[in-house]
Amino acid sequence: MGGKFPPQGFTLIELLIAVAIIGIVVGIAYPSYNRYVERSLRTDAHAGLLQAASEMERCYSRQYSYNGCTVTATSPDGSYAITVANGGDEDGGFLLTASSERDDGCEQVLQYNARGERLPAACW
Predict the structure, then answer these.
(1) Which regions in the chain score pLDDT beneath 50?
(2) What is the pLDDT of residues 38-50, one digit of tens each?
(3) Which terminal residue of the chain has fewer beta carbons within 10 Å of its beta carbon, N or C?
């Protein structure tokens, strides 16, 4: 039965080495992918806050007041709820807040005020 043809296929050792290499690559790539997803979520919040700020400024240019102005309630992708609070002198007139139930890698809610201040700075 020995014969003309050499044995074909993979040995168990070769398969284990391939599985180990795949495990190492996944172990390196998965955390990077999670950071990418977190950044993309924050980018959605940034876009929503800046869109809401431009809506507030358009309203102010018509009414000469931020009182009674409304904004789009969600970010462009719908991941964040955008709320507006009429403020005082410390924030320039309004404070926009983007909050989400999803983990975006930032422990605090993202905020933007009428003076253009972006809080917390580490998440922008």
Answers:
(1) none
(2) 888 889 999 999 9
(3) N
